[in-house]
UniProtKB/TrEMBL annotation:
GO terms of molecular function: mannitol-1-phosphate 5-dehydrogenase activity
Matches recorded under HAMAP family: Mannitol_dehydrog (MF_00196)
InterPro entries: 6-PGluconate_DH-like_C_sf (IPR008927), 6PGD_dom2 (IPR013328), Mannitol_1_phos_5_DH (IPR023028), Mannitol_DH (IPR000669), Mannitol_DH_C (IPR013118), Mannitol_DH_N (IPR013131), NAD(P)-bd_dom_sf (IPR036291)
Protein name: Mannitol-1-phosphate 5-dehydrogenase
Reactions accelerated catalytically: D-mannitol 1-phosphate + NAD(+) = beta-D-fructose 6-phosphate + NADH + H(+)
Protein family: Belongs to the mannitol dehydrogenase family.
Keyword Oxidoreductase: yes
A Pfam family hit: Mannitol_dh_C
Domain Mannitol dehydrogenase N-terminal: 11-204
Length: 396
């Protein structure tokens, strides 16, 4: 390696300069010495980042500190594809935090960036940082399909990229419009699977490298996100606006605890987590939800209810497995009922959900359409009862 190459600053292209992008993934990569390139389709955000030399991540709550992020640039991925491809071609890391359903839209630019990369230029680490099980696998499939269209077969992709699944955990609420600073909770965890990197694991202080991500991501999704969504939906039903207010309501708190007791039973049975350790994890998470300095809302946390009610997500995923094992699901079913009632201005999925409930589609068909569960699944009948109850309440 030449001295010039040794001195070259590593670069990271991060898709999605939103809450988690600026407040977590970008912050960690900046702290690891990467020069950041934010890619986003929101023109005001990109212009703001390019016009401002630094922004501050404010950790709020006990032990919180401020961190300055600087030395970045921002690319509008909707209008400057050539600039984006050139940066991906030279990047050491590509990350995303755009939402699981958006991964298919960012994959073509990543594929073109790989095609523009020399075969002997080293492998770029591609990691999706989304709330979904194995989100990088979803992205990888899309990138490989798009790469084939660019003349890159699987071996050519393997020579240029390494794909690793991750689990990201930090609560980052919606921010004041127009600003770049981000308020976040002090806690974070970024777990990345080590295996795909072989001997060449990137140096990213703060990351937890794990041999098997499955237990981490399921424990995170089925505890943090199941509990969070339950707090949002039960909280909304109780007239609360903020998550901290929702969990300060003893009835909401008890319902959330009931939900987490059920997912705990699954996680203990499936992965062998020690019950007292899982309980400690739950207590820590409930304390995080109660952080009154975090302006997090039930609308943000409840957003996109159809995604949250889908087959492998935070409610149906654990409830289906519990039902298959003959274990209780009553609290999760109650949370599904609250989720079905969720509506919020500007949330397309909430509007579509309410349309579906108002439609003439039979309850059983609607359960399958929303949750992906076949009629012969052991949870299906109970969900039909939940949908029927929600529909009856809409008419009364
Ligand atoms: N906020 C949190 O607490 C948190 C924590 C862990 C994980 N996550 C996950 O991180 C992801 C992002 O969440 P967020 O809260 O940061 O959302 P966000 O809405 O704040 O940010 C998403 C960003 O993606 C951008 N975007 C949309 N389409 C794009 C495209 N085609 N190309 C490039 N950029 C695009 C949007 O303009 C926006 O700036 C989600 O998967 C979420 O589940 C969020
Ligand atoms: O981002 P979503 O819509 O999948 O879920 C909403 C919140 O539960 C989520 O963003 C949490 O704040 C986050 O996952 C904490 O790590």
């Amino acid at each position: 390696m030449t001295g010039e190459a040794q001195d070259r600053q590593k670069t990271a292209v991060h898709f999605g300069a939103g809450n988690i992008g600026r407040g977590f993934v970008g912050l960690i990569l900046h702290g690891a010495g990467y020069r950041l390139v934010f890619a986003d389709v929101a023109a005001p955000l990109i212009d703001g980042l390019n016009a401002t030399p630094e922004y501050t991540v404010h950790e709020v709550g006990e032990g919180g500190r401020d961190h300055v992020v600087d030395g970045y640039e921002a690319v509008n991925s909707a209008t400057d594809e050539a600039g984006l491809i050139a940066r991906i071609a030279a990047a050491d890391v590509v990350t995303t935090a755009v939402g699981p359903n958006i991964l298919k839209f960012v994959a073509p630019a990543i594929a073109r960036g790989l095609a523009a990369r020399p075969a002997d230029g080293g492998r770029v680490a591609v990691m999706a940082c989304e709330n979904a099980i194995n989100a990088t696998d979803i992205l990888e499939r899309e990138v490989r399909a798009a790469a084939a269209g660019e003349g890159l077969d699987d071996a050519a992709v393997d020579a240029r990229a390494v794909f690793a699944n991750t689990a990201v955990d930090r609560i980052v609420p919606a921010q004041e419009p127009g600003g770049l600073d981000v308020r976040v909770e002090p806690y974070f965890e970024w777990a990345i699977e080590r295996g795909p990197f072989g001997e060449a694991v990137p140096e990213i202080p703060g990351v937890t490298w794990v041999d098997s991500l499955g237990p981490y991501i399921e424990r995170k999704l089925f505890t943090v996100n199941t509990g969070h969504a339950a707090a949002a939906y039960f909280g909304r039903a109780a007239g609360r606006e903020r998550i901290a207010e929702a969990v300060a309501d003893p009835e909401v708190q008890a319902r959330v605890e009931g939900v987490l007791a059920e997912t705990k039973a699954l996680l203990v049975a499936k992965y062998g987590f020690a019950p007292h350790e899982q309980q400690a994890y739950i207590e820590k998470i409930l304390a995080r939800f109660a952080n009154a300095e975090l302006p997090d809302t039930v609308e943000r946390v409840g957003r996109a209810p159809l995604r949250k009610l889908s087959r492998h997500e935070r409610f149906i995923g654990p409830a289906a497995e519990l039902a298959e094992r003959g274990l209780p699901t009553d609290a999760l079913l109650a949370a599904v009922g609250a989720a079905l009632r969720f509506d919020a201005p500007g949330d397309d999925e909430a509007a579509r959900l309410q349309e579906l409930l108002a439609s003439g589609e039979p309850d059983a068909g609607l359960v399958t359409e929303i949750t992906g569960l076949a009629p012969d699944h052991p949870l299906h009948g109970a969900l039909v009862g939940v949908v029927a109850g929600v529909r009856a309440a809409r008419l009364s």
